[in-house]
Task: inverse folding
């Protein structure tokens, strides 16, 4: 037997793990099918009013109608573009501000009360201000998204930086390492998991910001479809847009997970 070949015990463990994953996946699919099946059945037997709650069959018909008119790609692309721009900008700017706060303790003390207030402030209250400043367009929606994800990123990354092992920092200082070397060789790599977790959180926060912005001012996007559908009392359009929103959020989250797996292999976190 080759010396690098896995042992029979490990092969058995891997087989059991794959089997468990398949069982979990099957149950997830059955749960989803069961929910939609009960939803559809309830509208046919009179347990719920399809006009008020819609139904899977009506949503499929609405989806096909949107595809025929050619409007759907525009709305999906608009929301996704706004979300990606806000997501990347919030993560990048938030990380840079957190680095600056770690670098300068005085700056951290100056910004701390303002960050606490901004984090507690409902961002919806800032929507009209952003509209006046940026205009009724994509810019105000992206700024709304940035406002929601930026503060969370700053606080998460800064707390992670502060939680770096002080003994390791003290060791690097005894070796005459500069503050920049401590940051890039110890503090930032040590908070790599914190950054990845922040990315995952920012996916949801970015979508929240985009939909909030589109609720206030938009001419296209999934949020626009939801608002328009509610105004004309078209629950089929509202529920279809909500499901499309959920699907887009899941796809974006899976892309972040894929990027995490790739970076883990690139940096050697996973053997």
Result:
């Amino acid at each position: 037997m080759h010396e690098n070949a896995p042992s029979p015990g490990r092969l058995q463990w891997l087989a059991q793990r794959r089997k468990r994953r398949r069982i979990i996946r099957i149950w997830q699919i059955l749960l989803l099918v069961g929910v939609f099946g009960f939803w559809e059945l309830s509208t046919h037997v009179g347990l719920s009013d399809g006009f008020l709650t819609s139904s899977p069959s009506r949503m499929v018909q609405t989806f096909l109608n949107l595809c025929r008119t050619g409007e759907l790609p525009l709305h999906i692309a608009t929301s996704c573009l706004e979300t990606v721009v806000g997501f990347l900008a919030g993560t990048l700017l938030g990380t840079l501000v957190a680095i600056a706060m770690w670098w300068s303790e005085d700056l951290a003390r100056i910004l701390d009360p303002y960050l606490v207030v901004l984090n507690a402030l409902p961002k919806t209250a800032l929507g009209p201000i952003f509209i006046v400043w940026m205009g009724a367009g994509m810019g105000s929606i992206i700024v709304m998204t940035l406002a929601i994800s930026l503060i969370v990123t700053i606080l998460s990354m800064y707390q992670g930086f502060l939680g770096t092992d002080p003994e390791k920092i003290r060791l690097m200082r005894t070796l005459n390492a500069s503050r920049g070397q401590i940051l890039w060789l110890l503090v930032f790599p040590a908070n790599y998991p914190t950054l990845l977790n922040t990315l995952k959180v920012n996916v949801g926060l970015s979508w929240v910001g985009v939909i909030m912005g589109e609720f206030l001012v938009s001419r296209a996007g999934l949020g626009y479809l939801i608002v328009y559908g509610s105004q004309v009392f078209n629950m089929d359009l509202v529920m279809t847009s909500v499901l499309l929103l959920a699907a887009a959020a899941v796809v974006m989250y899976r892309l972040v997970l894929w990027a995490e797996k790739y970076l883990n292999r690139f940096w050697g976190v996973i053997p």
